[in-house]
Amino acid sequence: MLTDNVKTQIRTIYKNIAAALPNFRSRREQNYMVAEISKTLAGEYDKHRRIIVVEAGTGIGKSLSYILGAIPLALASKKKVIIATATVALQEQLLHQDLPFFLQHSALDFKFGLVKGRQRYVCLSKLEILIGSQQDSSQMAMWQTKPDNTQIELLKTLYDDFHHGRWNGELDTLKEPIPDFLWQQICCDKHSCHKQLANHRHCPFHHARDELDTWDVLIVNHSLLFADLELGGGIILPEPEDSFYVIDEAHHLPIVARDFSSAQATLRGAIGWLEAMVKTCNKLQQQIKSTMVVGPVQAMIDHIGDVTGQLEQVAHFCDTQPKLFANPENRCRFEHGKLPDVLRLPAQNLATATNAAVKQFNKVSAILAEAIKDGDIPKHQAELLMSETGFMLQRLENLQKLWKMMAKEDNAKGAPTARWIEMITGKQVDYLFSASPIEVGFMLEKMLWEKAAGVVLCSATLRALNKFDHFTHQVGLSLNDGSRYLALQSPFDYANNATLFLPKMSTEPTDDEYTAELAKKIIELIEGETATLVLFASYWQMEKVADLVEGKLAVKPLIQGTASRQQILEEHKKRCDAHQDSIIFGTGSFSEGLDLPGDYLTNLIVTKLPFAVPTSPVEQAHAEYIKIKGGNPFLQLTIPDASRKLIQSCGRLLRKEQDYGRVTILDRRLVSKRYGKSLLDALPPFRRVIE
């Protein structure tokens, strides 16, 4: 239960924040969100299901709401708060603005920080070997390609900066950016960086992890959250049962969870690195003095031969079945996820063989770690061997994950796994095998919902067609499972500040002449406007329209893909600040996370309803599964998804309370099709003008 002490704390902090913020306006929606979050996490509604799903419209101040609703209660109940976001921008906002401000005005004593993956930290041991006092053989072996002097000098500078306190070893705090290929050779990895090794105990990654234990509030990205959950929780981050999770930008959660649970690997590519693995095993046998290594290494080589032989058989089968790949995608997707009999047994054999290989290689790695610990292997050789075996083990684990998913018997009660093969043409024909879950709700239930002390899921767009049903199904929640649901309207005055305009069109997006009419309409709609954003449903159509309008607009549009997103936005703002007209052409990625307040955007044009064509094998498999169950994929998947994306697109216009402008949608299906009304009714209550 929420104690009187915590309630008083929350009210006092809210008053302090209100006094500290200039032009602060107390909002009923924000107060309600804070109260509902704290009550849910305290177990006032359901002691066993402390989960709340909140759609908070633009302008409510959701980050302050969940910070205030979760942190005082967490500190009082000795829980940690884990805030997971999808974008770097929101992580930085929380780290540098929201949490420091809250700490300053809350009178609470807590620590917070950003948790980063291993690859964001330098491995000092690798760095030392790569710069070397002289270019000896061990140094050269660590380099993937022969270095030039500038690369060596750059790494020496990093080494000096770290040891003189000018750099903390994190990629994100480098004064000057470092080429990605170079960073990959010096960054930390899970297999070669072990705290039990003397020369790794004080490395930046382990120092950061030690500091993490003292934090009360941890900021992470969605991927790191899943990395921890997949390991069982409590490995990278605090234990789920001791943590309140706040998952912001939660509309990304289903896709992130699905991608994180998928696996893919090539056949001949795998055969290639497995052959290299034999050389690694022989090297281990030569450099580890103990005779204890001989048996395990020989057994590992036998396992590699077994896996390689089976991969060759599957590759031969694919070579003899060109009809499977006789389509534009060079792809063979297995209907209902069922492998043909001719592949089912090889998949099961590979699942067994790769599992045995992983176990055996872990034994070999353990012998190597023991030899290094005992000082039997020189430091420079130890680092090379740890890096090499770590890299190999990572690949082997991925191969094992793929074939386990390929061979697994799907549960008759649940959605099948999507399974497919793509033919890769090049110097040598290869085959990429892939497997992915279609639905991840059951997985989220096991990994998070039933384990966590409490969960807050929030975003500005979680509902589709004014309902939570689509989202809850995607993430494995239910409207009657004890979870709480909250839809809070934006405080913006949509009716007076913005117009939704649907002009007359002679064509619809399915017509051949639509793109040409689109170009004409865009020219008309941009005339006399100073700050315009045009959102397209595809790159192809954007580029075609750009060609058709060339020379017919007052200014040259800033087109996505011709420069980085940041550069386009900076140039757009520069033009607007100089009172010049500016136009941006962008696709779907510009419909989310784009913040152009005030006079930076007053004219938003959405060319087409964002219907996703199920082109990916996972989407195709999902649609197929819904049809089998007697459903309609268009109504159950396409329409809800389009509704959410359309709301996001229209949400680019009004970012602050005083903003104004016009949203134009050039897709008459909103009024000509039966589903159009439900899509329109789900949009903010703009003043409507429909021709």
Folded structure, characterized:
Strand 8 (417-424) and strand 9 form a beta hairpin. With 691 residues, the chain is an alpha/beta fold. It is globular. It folds into four domains: 4-111 and 215-257 and 441-488, Rossmann fold, CATH 3.40.50.300; 118-209, no CATH class; 264-437, Alpha-catenin/vinculin-like (Four Helix Bundle (Hemerythrin (Met), subunit A), Up-down Bundle); 494-690, Rossmann fold, CATH 3.40.50.300. The strands form three sheets. The protein has a seven-stranded parallel sheet. It is built from 25 helices and 18 strands. The longest helix is centred in the middle third of the chain and has 33 residues, at 341-373. Helix 16 (441-449) crosses helix 17 (469-475). The model is unreliable at 133-141 (pLDDT under 50).
The CATH topology of the largest domain corresponds to Rossmann fold
The CATH superfamily label of the largest domain reads: P-loop containing nucleotide triphosphate hydrolases
CATH class of the largest domain: Alpha Beta
Strand order of the largest sheet: 3-4-2-5-10-1-11
| Strands, total number | 18
How large is the share of residues in beta strands? 5-15%
Structural class: alpha/beta
Could you name the ranges where pLDDT drops below 50 across 5 or more consecutive residues? 133-141
Distance between the termini: 55 Å
Number of helices: 25
Largest sheet descriptor:
7 strands, parallel
> What overall form do the CA principal axes indicate?
globular
Structurally, how many domains make up the residues?
A: 4
